[in-house]
Prior knowledge:
By secondary structure, the protein is of the alpha/beta class. It contains eight helices and six strands, in the order αβααβββαααββαα.
Amino acid sequence: MINIENLVNQYLEKDNKKQKEEHSTYSGLISASSLGQCYRRIFYTIHKTEQSNPPDERALRVFSCGNLFHKFLQDIVSTDNRIPERVYKDDVVSVRIDLEAEDAVYEFKSMHSKGFWYMDAEIKNGKTIQEFKIEHCLQVGLGAMCFKKENACLVYISKDDLCIKQFNLKTKDLEPLVTKEVDAIKKVLSVGVLPPPEPRLYGKDKKGNPKECEYCAFKDRCMTEREV
């Protein structure tokens, strides 16, 4: 009998290796998806530093699920006037948006249904999407700026039951945040040396440790270079 799980894992590992090879050349561009992250993490990523903590089999499956849900939404909403998978590059940034419409860009994010509960709790406590999902706002905001759209839309879809929550944002409200973030990253890169670690996402766990470090593909390398 065949082992289906092994075949899936082998396929994802092969696909991940192929993608890494295709993006192995240093571009020096700031990726929209990295906005809001630790500056050292961004530095490592832009310089194509070897990952000390590459994604394991489970992480690759999670990434693949996200791609499947992205494709699911794109297939449903795409028309001649709504174009999926648009890419923009200049001499500073690299941006990929999930959907371009006449007056807006859209960024799709998949999550478990529990994530919706947390978002509702944050909103109930008076917080805005810019406060508890700043990295997503920066990403879609940069996309809207690059494609010159008035609106930037974040669309969250549940992996469990296909529930959807959409946040329609104005590009003019996000532009100051995006500009400040990109300028800060440019300043870090212009120095040309490894910046100190500065986790900025997801807060801290019960022990006071930055949660972003747990998701970082350079965690062990960073710890050994902590004093740099």
